[in-house]
C-alpha cells in the first residue's frame, strides 16, 4: 500500500472506501439484492465489526457483516488481488457466522441462511462469468443439501452480460474502473448512489482522519510483521547450522525459535558458525543468556 495515498485518490474497490460506503444500509441493501437476485426488505449492518468504527483494533477486517429481516446473514468482502484458497476462506467465514449464532444459544435447527460474497477484480474461475454461485449438493443425485449456506463470487471480468441483471454489469464495470473512469456517468441509479456517497466521504474531514489512522495502523502492522520475519529467519539460520553438526534436541530448538532478542540471536548465530558440536553450542549458549 502506498504510504502517501490520500483519501481523494481512493476508488470504491480500495478497502477503506468500500467499507465506508457499504456501511450505508440503503447502499448495502441495494448491493445485496443485485448479488443474490431476490428482494430484501431491510438490512442491518453489524457496524461494531467494521474497522471504520474501531480503528484501534489490530488484525484488521474490512469486510461487511449484515443481516436482513429474515435473519439471513451476509459477509461481503472486496478482493482486488487474486489470492489462493478463496473457497476455504469462504468456508471459514461461514463457520464464523455459524459459531457466533450458536454461542448465543441458538439450536442447529434455528441457524439462518448465510451468504459469503466476494467482489473480485479478477476472474476467480477463468470462465468469464460475472457471477459464480456455489451451494452444497449431492455428487450422486444432484440434490441440494439445503444447509442454507451459499457462496457467491462476483467478477469484474465477466463477458456473459445476457445472463445477469444489467445493473450488476454496470456495478462491476464501475468496480473495475480506474480513478478517472470511476466518475463517469454509468446511466445507473445504484452506481450514481455510490458515487455520491464517495464524494461525501472524500470531502469529510472526519473520514480523512480515520483513513490516516488506518494507514498508520497498517504501517505498524507491516513493520511488526517484517521484524518478526527477521527474527524468525535468523532463528532458522541458526538451526540450519546446528543441524549440520547433528541432531538438535527439541528443548534447544524451542529455545532458539522462541528467542525474540535480535542481539542474542546474533550471538547464537556466530556461536553456531564456530561450534564443533551441538553440545558445545548448548553449553556456550547458556553463558550468553546468563551474562
Written overview of the protein:
It is a single chain. Helix content is 47%, strand content 12%. With 291 residues, the chain is α/β, with parallel strands linked by helices. The chain has two domains: 7-203, no CATH class; 218-290, no CATH class. It has a six-stranded mixed β-sheet with strand order 1-2-3-4-6-5, with helices on both faces. β2 and β3 (73-79) form a beta hairpin. α6 (205-243) packs parallel to α8 (262-274) and α8 packs antiparallel against α9. It is elongated, with a radius of gyration of 25 Å. It starts with 14 loop residues before the first helix and ends with a helix. The model is unreliable at 51-61 (pLDDT under 50).
What is the typical, i.e. mean, pLDDT? 86
Number of domains: 2
Low-confidence stretches: 51-61
Percent helix: 40-55%
What's the helix count? Answer: 9
Structural class: alpha/beta
Overall outline: elongated
Main beta sheet: 6 strands, mixed
Q: How do the helices and strands line up, and which of them pair or pack?
A:
Elements: H1 15-22, H2 25-36, E1 43-45, E2 64-68, E3 73-79, H3 86-103, E4 114-120, E5 131-135, E6 149-155, H4 166-176, H5 189-202, H6 205-243, H7 250-258, H8 262-274, H9 278-290
Parallel strand pairs: 3-4, 4-6
Antiparallel strand pairs: 1-2, 2-3, 5-6
List keywords for this structure.
291 residues, alpha/beta, 2 domains, six-stranded mixed β-sheet, 9 helices, 12% strand, elongated, Rpn family recombination-promoting nuclease/putative transposase
